[in-house]
Design a protein that fits this description.
Layout lengths: L17 H50 L2 H5 L22 H19 L4 E6 L20 E7 L9 E7 L3
Antiparallel strand pairs: 1-2, 2-3
């Protein structure tokens, strides 16, 4: 048997040290920062998807307006028209197909501007419907296909660079 000295005190570690606590807090804080980053990306993606859904709905809206005025569509009344208010379109006497097209585009453009940040739009005859920007819509007036082009500022940097385009060919 070993003989121990009676005045010798054994020290045992119990609990944690301050360094271990600091390291645990550091690891936890990096994990929380990662969660916050993922949440921010998720919110941005959801907002972008929401805007794209609004743009899709608005394009269907103008398509339905055009289908209700097929004579105006066939006459080219919707081709890159700025839109104009016509009170006769809301009265019993009615209005011409061109006036109806102008009223439709005016109302629809207001919806686009109100629903999307920096929302801009155009409906036009275009042989190349997949081009153009909000500043230059690139409508060439050619062909028999109507292009519906909608732009908005998806990342809110002041430039309406995100777009949604669809086309419509009257029967």
């Amino acid at each position: 048997m070993l003989n121990r000295a009676p005045n010798r005190i054994e020290r045992r570690q119990s609990g944690t040290t301050l360094i271990e606590v600091a390291v645990a807090l550091l690891v936890l804080s990096f994990g929380m920062l990662g969660i916050v980053g993922v949440q921010a990306v998720s919110l941005r993606a959801n907002q972008s998807a929401y805007f794209r859904t609004i743009a899709t709905t608005l394009s269907v809206d103008v398509l339905e307006r055009m289908r209700a005025n097929l004579v105006g569509v066939e006459n080219g009344d919707y081709d890159d028209v700025a839109g104009a208010a016509t009170a006769a379109c809301f009265s019993v006497g009615g209005c011409t197909t061109a006036q109806m097209a102008g009223q439709d585009i005016l109302d629809w453009s207001a919806l686009v501007a109100a629903a999307l940040p920096s929302g801009d739009s155009v409906v036009c005859l275009d042989s190349t419907p997949e081009d153009g920007t909000a500043a230059a819509n690139a409508c060439d007036g050619g062909g028999t296909v109507y292009a519906i082009k909608i732009w908005w500022d998806d990342n809110r940097d002041g430039t309406a660079a995100t777009w949604y385009r669809t086309s419509f060919k009257p029967l």
